[in-house]
Amino acid sequence: MQVDPAGGTEMSIATKPAEPALVGRSPGQLMWRRFRRDRIGVVSALVVAFFFLIGLLAPVISALYGKDPYTRYGQIQPGLLNEYGYPIKPNGGMDGEFWFGLEPSTGRDVFTELLYGIRTSLFIALAVTVLAVLTAIVLGIAAGYLGGVWDFLISRLTDLLMAFPQQLFFVAFLPITTSLFVDPREETPVWIKVVSIIVVLWALGWMTLGRILRGVTLSLREREFVEAAKVSGASPWRIIRKELLPNTVSPILVQATYMLPSFVTTAAALSFLGVGITEPTPDWGRMFATAAAVYRSDITYMFFPGVSLVIFVVAFNLLGDAVRDAFDPKTVR
Amino acid sequence: MTTETAETQPAPAGTRTPLMTAEGLTKYFPVRGGFPIKRTVGAVHAVDGLDFTVHEGESFGLVGESGCGKSTTGRLLARLLEPSGGTLTYRDRDITHASRRELAPIRSEIQMIFQDPYSSLNPRQTVGTIIGGPMEINGIRPPGGRAARVRELLETVGLNPEHYNRFPHEFSGGQRQRIGVARALALEPRLIVADEPVSALDVSIQAQVVNLLRKVQEELGIAFLFIAHDLAVVRHFSQRIAVMYLGKIVEVGDREAIHQRPRHPYTHALLSAVPEVALEHPDGTPAEPPRERIRLQGDVPSPTDPPSGCRFRTRCWKAQDLCAEQEPPLVRIEGNAEGHLTACHFPEAGTTLAADRPEPVLPAPVEP
Q: Does residue A314 sit in helix, strand or coil?
């Protein structure tokens, strides 16, 4: 092919006026554009959004569906459970009426139970994540920016808490925390159980992010743009807010998206061990506890909470990676 | 990079008004060590008793090798560091230990340009936010709005105003440094501390940025404390030059005095280290007489334990017992022009030509 020099210059002239059209985009728009290009990220965001949506809309969905997670349908309606308490129909009693089957022995509806279980678990995990992230931001940035005695105190506290055996601590301290609110002889209201789970998970949940933020702040503090802000007379508060915090967004977001699913699984593990959410409140982890007892005879009861939990955790972690990539202006895809 | 001297001549000494004066300016960084309890075991004498004045509208160059305290001096002047001793006077106001609130009214008048254009711009902020930030902090509302002023500044430093919403990572090193210059100009300062503003840049870009700074200095009448280790750049940009060695000023004077009639041996050594292009006449004879060549031996002594007396004596070929006993004062010695001060007991003759140097300073390196 012949290269026409005139054509070449025409080309460059033609592309010139396009340059002023490169109107700057706001940081949010840029992040959104990068995120939308990431297919895995978009799909996992949809999956995660779906889970939050069904958690949020659990009452609406179950009202439309016409069941609730507390009624023992298997015991009321004859012909659903056999004399050993297992669903008579195959696949855990799945049919047009009970989409995901029935819980063995109690005969509750699995579909609504799972909806409400997701709702409980996500609420707890979200609350713990928000609290832990806020704590980590305050303590981590304080340690990194103030330094000296503050850094020493906060870092030693972090070390101390990290040295705790977490699961043992949770099992040991949940009853204690609960008894702070309620006399052990009385029946514990559900909300107090939820609050004490949140408090205990929060107390041991913020350290990793706190350490990361301390390190990030330490390195950012020495950067020249912080000095530039100081030369302009910026207050420490403004420097933290405008110069440091925006640069900690990606570690915070990434860590938070790893923290939330891990809190879901930890809360589930606590329910499984019997110290978390207990009968009859629906909960993801409590369903596992029941499922573990019956899985030899009725694997279907473990299938739905198990698969949904795996999908949720994987999607959430992939979302975290995608968000990090989108926030990093240097990412080129 | 061109080494031709700037056209602007320094104003006559009598008419210059001092802008920033340092007297005995000192900064020691404590060295902490020991186990298990850390305690202060010594101090790095980064800056040790500097006396100098930057006048209104003047470019004051500060040169010296790495680690001699140039950058510390710049940060002390910008009050990013707390001086350990001495006084800093800015327009008859003592700002040595002024707090952030006390400094607020003059913060807009002293700005800084940083060495590393990759770390001096917040990667999460747009160019508009970076340049507009100082105005926001100081509550300045220029006519037409801050955004318009930022676009104007972008144009001043030779960038496209359309770049307002771009991020620093979308720019090259030279462009980033221009953004840094625009940020420093945003508050219409009287003094800009330029801490090696071109050291991190490509040589071709260095010239552009230096010329931009010169344009800014001449058109806006801003005084500069210009820190560099490249003598050619400083010569191009600064009317007065101070030479630092190990936390002290060893020689200060007008550009011509320092470059053509240096007296301190260290200044000689520095000048002789500038690479020289041997220009020749068509017949092969050198166009310019060759300059002297001085190779300093050894390393810079540790600033935690500087030598007694004259700090340069450990590497000086003229050092005698007196140099270890007495610290030479920074004074106008015999034969110096006005304002040319040298701290040396045994100053060199005021020439930089090889022909005028009587004996070879050091034995020639042994060829293998």
A: helix
